[in-house]
Amino acid sequence: MTKWVKFDSKSKHGIAVCNFKVERVGFLKLFIGDVVLIYEEGDEWYRGQLSKDKTKKGIFPKKFVHLKEIGIKKTGSLDLSGRITTLELPLIQEITTVLREWHNIWKQLFVERRHELMSVQDMMQELIDQRRKIMSRKLTAEELRDIQQKIATKIDLGNALLGLDLVVRDELGSVLDPDVTSTIQLFRQHEEASERIKSEQELGIKDTQREKIDKTKDELTSMNWPQTFNIYVMLRNFVCRIGEDADLLMSLYDAKLGKFISENYVVKWGKEGVPKDIDNLNNFKVVFTDLGIKDRQREKVFLVIQVVRVGVMDPNDVNDKKQTKCLRRPFGVAATEITDILQGLKEVNEDMQQFIPFQQPSGEEFMESLIKKVVSAKEINHKGQGLWVSLKIMMGDLKQAREEHPHLVTMATAVSRKMGFPEVIMPGDVRNDIYVTIKQGEFTRGSKTADKNVEVTVLVCNKQGEPLKDVISYGCGNDMTNEYRSLVFYHEDKPKWFETIKIAISTEEEFKGLHLKFLFKHRSSSESKDRSERPFAMSFIKLLNQKNGTTLNDTDHNLLVYKNKNDGIEKKDDKQAPYLDLPCTRDDLEEQGIHKDSKVPLFSGPFTLSQRDSFQINTFVCSTKLTHNVDILGLLKWQELLNELDPSALRLHLEKLMHVDGEEIVKFLQDLLDSLFRILIENTISDTYDSQVFECLVHIIGLISDRKYHQFRPVLDAYITDTFSFPSAYQKLTTLLREYVDRATEVNQKYLVKAMKSLEYLFKFIVKSRSLFNLLEEGKGKVAFEQTMKHLLHAISGMMLHTSDNTLLAQGSALKYMCSAIKDIAQVFDLVELSRLMVEFINNVPKERLTKQKLKCIDDLVHSDLFKYP
Known about the structure:
Distance between the termini: 77 Å
InterPro entries: C2_DOCK-type_domain, C2_domain_sf, DOCK, DOCK_N, DOCK_N_sub1, SH3-like_dom_sf, SH3_domain, TPR_DOCK
Number of domains: 5
Number of helices: 26
Keywords: Cytoplasm, SH3 domain
Domain SH3: 9-70
Subcellular location: Cytoplasm
Pfam family, one: SH3_2
Oligomer: single chain
């Protein structure tokens, strides 16, 4: 029997979130939105009354109401009772009140068929979205202020559109209380609000729908940083008669290049026609992230869903019970073009549902050819089969998407990364992914009377041939696995799989000896025969180049196929797998001087080369730790070179870094900077590499300053602020910079000009290093550092005295970039002394020399932080 106790809680009021229709005595009938006052509670029940009609009392289920904290608001000193109000943010209360008021008017607009209907509807939807963000309680105080101003503007526009009273607000968008605000202030704010709304209406802002589309276009085309965006996709439903379990593989596809540009998002669908994870129903969401300007410029992009049936070879076979189970068989493809959505030409949101028609293959058709057929078809005879999805463009990186759309992008939302780096790689974004595409093969029948049903099993093995655990992924939304099994095509001697998987290996793993192993097995449709089948052949490829330690090239690899005489059973060797001594690709074979048609047998242990069989894969490395470039690798492993007593090799790598492609440098920016600073402060090598390291630093700073890589400036800023950890580096940097300046007429002018262009970041590094030193040594050496800085700044001023044409470019660069370093120098240097030195710096420029640059420098100085200090 239910025991009733007094309801002891601050939240004694509740809001009905579901209808509770019951006609029995003692029960309280509820409708959504009813406010109830709660007296008592039992195990699963409350007892109370309706706030609007106190005569209606009774019990009702706890789950049917949402508790709200309620307060009493008095409207004046004479108001003894006050009125009941929820203890929510005033902004939330205002939005709720406005939505209720607008909703009644919106229904009347619908009845009267007024043209304002859609504008009001869009405004209401936007207010609901903003309210949802605020209720998530994930906004910072600054974000809350920004959103409050936007909401205030939207409410004022809506009220003006509907002819409602104008709400008087302050500068932050908060409603002014007439009881505590003077009449004059109210009048002035009223006038300002009227003028603001009038001007916004004249600009056409009242057309909310057009405004949202234009805003999306502007965001897509003119966003400075980060120049990234995401595509949010929610799978609503999949209508198709399969009869067996299936995997739905959702990804982005470039139709012009004929390749996928994102990882798969995997949803497992049950044979009953519902998701296997039924608890996750209505929550199959994925964010395709890392997309940028180049992706918006693609000519044709499709959202493609591949459907893979997981079951028997032929579901129409009457002897279904005797068939081999769990074979992965191609079942069909669904695709829809999203190019207009990416480019901002078509508006979508999370509430709009889109149907994607589904196409089954004709016979034993390869998925690759079916995808090309579907994306090029004008119409698809889908027979009512297909998927329902919702899409939304989310600006910024994944972190921003989570902050701005907390109700959509939760920690449980799957994240599908682009198969490639984003246009900006932030410090801490550590990736070590190798994308492997199983492309195609050719296999002889052997002893079979018909072509084989070939299944490829992919494993990642160490040098002993032992598989690594949980390193393979064939899509987000799915757990990492030890192996991957490919599709099976029935009686096909030249299968084309074109399946992409991701190999994600921990950066702490020993890469030497790691390799991919591919086992080829005939899958019989008969379960009894399939049990006795063993892999008939294998291929492999090493992840690292044994000669120089670089990783696999991003290209196709024609692998050699080896037969196994031991019926697929390998003998374990503690030292090394027997096949690792063999060449793994056609290129390796030719390097060893063996022709592919040579009749000389090639074998090791039980493995013998099969000349007639072939297998092709493609690899793409997306790693901040592994590189194709020998010189970058040499710098990242500089300590090994020094241990091998080979100083000339390190010197050569430092020299060649200047010629490495910028794309590779920004990819490994953090690790390269760490390596350069470690070499700089290494005591055992003294000053041997100082000059070269300094030139490399200047080269990298110059690269980031280049317009092509300007989006990486925040990355460099973040590195200095959060990652840089070399407290003694300032000593070397100040010395080296001064040496360059003192020898202005002697040093290579190209390097001097680059150093002057890099003044801002060189001083950032110096100041950050000195700040770290202060924390470590509690201010030790402060006077000596200030003297060093004074001499350095005086030396730069002295360089301005030169009158030869040889130093003209360097002097011009110094005038242009010196003021950008003031903000950082001011943190560690006396402001009065800095002001004197800057005056000296400008006065030292000879008359009638660099006049334009000098005036610009004076203008920059006036607008610098130095003029903000008293």
